[in-house]
User: Fold these one by one.
Assistant:
Number 1:
Amino acid sequence: MDRTKRKLTFAELSAVKTKKLQSKLNDPDNLFQLIFALSQLKSCRFTYFSERDIALPIATRKQHSTIETLALYTVDTWNEILTLTSYTSNLRRLITPCGMDRDIDIETLLPLRLSNLTYLRTCFNYLNFHEFEIFIKKIYSPLKILHVEFLVEDVNFRDSDCWENLILTSLSHLEELYLIYKERFPPSDDLIFSGKLNPFSSPFWIDRRWFFEVETDINFVNYIVRPYRSCNNSTNLVRLLCFRIPAADDGTIEKLKRTIITNGITCDYTIKRIVDRVYIEWKLEPTIDSS
């Protein structure tokens, strides 16, 4: 980019608060420096195609951007994210759909310190649950909304006790969890909705109205935890939740019905009891996900 055109681009971008930028670059550093210098920019969605890694230095105290929402669609290494976010001390929302754990060394992981960051959306392609625990403890931010997807098979990702402990100890501000964990179909014919595979039914999850679901496609079983209001808005979609209650009787079912009505969890539902397994089936109502 010649000097004249670069000045023109800067002048045009300085007048906007939100800009989607997509560019094919040999050196992305120059464009990032340009973006971070914009005095009114609040949100940036950035995609670039380059064989070069980002090589910006860590920001100094005088190099702080006004950006509050940053979406990085082609950045997937922790060191690059640390570098870029060092320029965005006001950052509130960080989105990295390609992940952030490529070439990560969990033993020497540097912390992310963003005091205003409340929203994180990302995926993990390489970390198991224990490594993810170490990772999340390196984020010193009051996260309120976490969207996260895992592509490494580790049964601890669908262990409610592991998640409950992590949330209570390291994500104390969390208000909404959107979790997707993928597994290839098991070789056995075990029921997907067995008590063993569906443990997200303790008061911890019910009080937060975070629901557990299982979806299947050709090759994978997708285990999903998300707030009730974020569920698919199809009026024809029926969900099934099954859990085991030892010594369940008719009184247990009546108490469960009263709890559902009192908390306004759902209206169009049926409850069935077969021995000590309780099945709740409900039709999802149309909702709009505002997040």
Number 2:
Amino acid sequence: RGAELLHKAAAILKEHKVPIAECLVKEIAKPAKDAVTEVVRSGDLVSYCAEEGVRILGEGKFLVSDSFPGNERTKYCLSSKIPLGVILAIPPFNYPVNLAVSKIAPALIAGNSLVLKPPTQGAVAALHMVHCFHLAGFPKGLISCITGKGSEIGDFLTMHPGVNCISFTGGDTGIAISKKAGMIPLQMELGGKDACIVLEDADLDLVAANIIKGGFSYSGQRCTAVKVVLVMESVADALVEKVKAKVAKLTVGPPEDDCDITPVVSESSSNFIEGLVMDAKQKGATFCQE
């Protein structure tokens, strides 16, 4: 029954891809084509979870007591997976639909209920997405959505005694959550300083293309974005020229126009990025694009 409803939710999500994508464009300045792709990809992920869940949850383990040295085979054990209970899901602003369904679908197929705390930027798209699950037939009490700033409602949710597990995607906030949550399972997907390593025999055209895609996709606002390039000195100059040529072709503008570089999510993010640029300049960095 759960898998059937998830497949239905996936189909409804795809049917509503245009209005949800419009929310992503307006809320988080995601380029229009990328916004549609996020919604469609989310529907595919929900269907995948439905299929895998049926397979995984149908399995059990049969153990015998002599599997440990010294014991006799006088006892048997059959183990299977059971639901945790209430899952608190906290996705980030950069993928408020995709990184929400990646928490929602596994939780539901495993028999849990779920409380979604969407990001402040991206909350409307998340609400629309949750509505698709309700339209599919999931009871409103089984999947709930609570909006609000993390600074105002975050502690109440993460420390609530009714929460049995927390799945969080974001940055340093995950450290604070892990300290406050208590003795419950935590799933933390946090940030990283992702490096692109380039050796002497690399295909530099392929490298340059992936540096641009990895570094500038959604204006670099991704935990998996390329943030530093470590390249062998013998090919460094050639690679810089190839990257410069590709950067020069990137378009800058509003997300509605499907530009490559769109406004970042907040003024504080913009100030942080500008601060990094100024810091690099003061430390003698060479600027390839002015």
